[in-house]
Amino acid sequence: MRYGPIWPATLECGDLVLRPIRYRDRKEWTEVRSRNSQWLAPWEASNPDPRGGLPDYRQMVRSLNSQAAQSTALPFLITERVAGSRSPHIVGQLTVSSILWGSAMMATLGYWVDQARAGHGIAPTAVALVTDHCFQTLGLHRMEINIRPENGPSLRVVEKLGFRDEGYRPRYLHINGEWADHRSFALTSEEVPDGLLPRWLATRTS
């Protein structure tokens, strides 16, 4: 059973604001992605069809909005309030995808963060915030994150948050031009009865 409306949603924690991605974000999103092209390239999803390619920004937003309307995805931008600025700046993106209802009640989560803001707790805070939203508001039971074994920063995120390592998935996703192995991590709602975000924030102040 769904406990609340799925979309749109805006989630906040301190200076961090997660909100829906919009067509009018194109200029800022493109600038951030361009500046981080080398940082993100090893982990970028690619199209295994040699005749195909990746969607442009407008196509991506249209597809994500369509999935959100069908209750199968939550496409968030990760933004951060900055002193002296009228609106939060884009510092990353987080998408909850492959949402399954019925007897599964689960989803998969993926994210990226601006290299200039990496190491400041943005990724784990965003993941914890969204996981709690999925468990407590949507009523999902399981959240899964799949990570390349070589992706040290992302591995540290799931380690900090206490996601369970469920093992190796050979040639799981097409990444940066080839089928790539991943490690699968997961968390169920019973493992964080009081919420993942409070547990994460407690570790930062202890």
Rounded mean pLDDT is: 93
Succession of helices and strands: EEHHHEEEHEHEEH
Helical content stands at 25-40%
* Main sheet attributes: strand count, strand direction, barrel closure: 8 strands, mixed
Describe the secondary-structure layout.
Blueprint: E1 11-13, E2 16-20, H1 26-35, H2 37-40, H3 57-69, E3 74-80, E4 89-100, E5 106-113, H4 122-137, E6 142-147, H5 152-161, E7 164-175, E8 178-188, H6 196-205
Parallel strand pairs: 5-6
Antiparallel strand pairs: 1-2, 2-3, 3-4, 4-5, 6-8, 7-8
Domain N-acetyltransferase: 16-190
Organism: Pseudarthrobacter chlorophenolicus (strain ATCC 700700 / DSM 12829 / CIP 107037 / JCM 12360 / KCTC 9906 / NCIMB 13794 / A6) (Arthrobacter chlorophenolicus)
Pfam families: Acetyltransf_3
What does this structure look like?
- The protein is of the alpha+beta class.
- The chain has one domain: Aminopeptidase.
- The protein has helices at residues 26-35, 37-40, 57-69, 122-137, 152-161, 196-205; strands spanning 11-13, 16-20, 74-80, 89-100, 106-113, 142-147, 164-175, 178-188.
- Strand 4 and strand 5 (106-113) form a beta hairpin.
- The longest helix is centred in the middle third of the chain and has 16 residues, at 122-137.
- The chain is globular.
- The N and C termini lie far apart (36 Å).
- The relative contact order is 0.16.
- Belongs to the acetyltransferase family. RimJ subfamily.
- InterPro entries: Acyl_CoA_acyltransferase, GNAT_dom, N-acetyltransferase.
- GO terms for molecular function: protein-N-terminal-alanine acetyltransferase activity.
- Keywords: Acyltransferase, Transferase.
